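Run folding on both entries below.
>entry_1
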Amino acid sequence: MILEEYLSPASIQEALGILQSYQGQAQIIAGGTDLIPELKKQTRRVRCLVDISGVEELKKIGLDGDDIKIGAGVTHTEIASSKLIIDKFPALAKAASEVGSPQIRNIGTIGGNICSARPAADTIGPLIGYGAEVKIASDQGENWLALEELFTGPGETILKPGEILTEILIKPPIPETHSSYTKFGPRKALAVAIVSVTSVITLDPGSGKCKEARIVLGAVAPTLIRCLESEEVLVNKKITEDLAAQAGSLAAQSCQPISDIRGSAEYRREMVKILVRRALEQTMQGAEQR
């Protein structure tokens, strides 16, 4: 399949029309930080690239009532520097600040990071931790679904040809909700995570006990995963060092890491145990400082 056209629609509807006309042989591109390398390696082939980087309605961060909406075309740099995101969803701001290099963050988009569906993708963990929903548009209309329902495997989603992820919605956090994002990679910069952990904890203001917990692991399963057993063990308890360590051990048992050039499965499990404990401790330290 040889690339025939490169088109730049001015609206979502125009982009949808192009996708429909190419019947599965066109590909959306925004920043292109994942797609361009795939095209160069010929691991992906398309007849038409549909560049949505100029669609203004996809490039906004704002409030819809109390909810925060982020356009799929918003860059990682814009998310990392947004006061609204920093104040309400600090783990997402931190994750966006750790995507690739400054050049990648300046052109790479949150929608692209999601749709690439990489198990090590930085922003997906915090978004799942905060209970994000995504809007999917097609020529049949629009629908919303929970972000964690989008992924089916490494690099794979339920998106069909002709559909575009256009927007992310995050409801405002419950008072006394605290979060952290941490990842471990082979170097301090430009690192693809060997393991990443997002921790989102809501505390009871009176007792200081955990009311609700979300722990999301990246790079240790075919998709990012919630650690449900770890979350359950935290609820209705004060999060101590011992309890955080117990949650880490449960998380290590629940993941399905592979061995690859960046680390063995056994090494990843051990890092999950350590990083979950560390993420919970960081979250609680943040709660104490606020």
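>entry_2
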Amino acid sequence: MCFVLYGVAGPSAFAALLSVFALTWITTRLGYKRKQKLGTAEQREGRTARQVLANLGVAAACACLYALSGTKIIFLLALAAALSEAAADTVSSEVGQAISERARLITTWERVPAGTNGGVSMIGTLAGIGAATLVTVICALTRLLPSKLLWVSLLGSVLGMFADSYFGAWLERPGLIKNNSVNFLSTLVASISAGILVSFA
């Protein structure tokens, strides 16, 4: 994933990827003992190749489409949105589990234990939006995307973050799909959303 992003989209995409990694690393370790008690803590060995592919596969595909299309900006926007959503999803989940005792199921709004698939909390949501903002700003500062289109990537990533919660409640909670599929679909939603929103810019 690193090679594809750096080789195709350049050091700007790599910088954005590093910011996603840093946010993931920090928030995964936040309240780790509490997450262990909840049974939601990430394993000490780290994330698997499948998890990495699920979170970064869409961004890498967008980088390849950017090169094949003759460098059309829409694919860089989709790439930035996918990376920002990956950060938002992880940070919202990790911070929510570390700090909130309870969450609300996004589909019915019923109260559920923190860490429940599809559960959202105010602190987790705000942390996720903050993470998406940080990654998107880095994309703009490193000139991966124009500053005037920053809002497109950010809004797309936030929509993807909420889609992740919906997929978690609707499909993952009853066991229809697994978390890797939810992560892939949510980054895909973020990318497609950014591609649609740019037409309004």
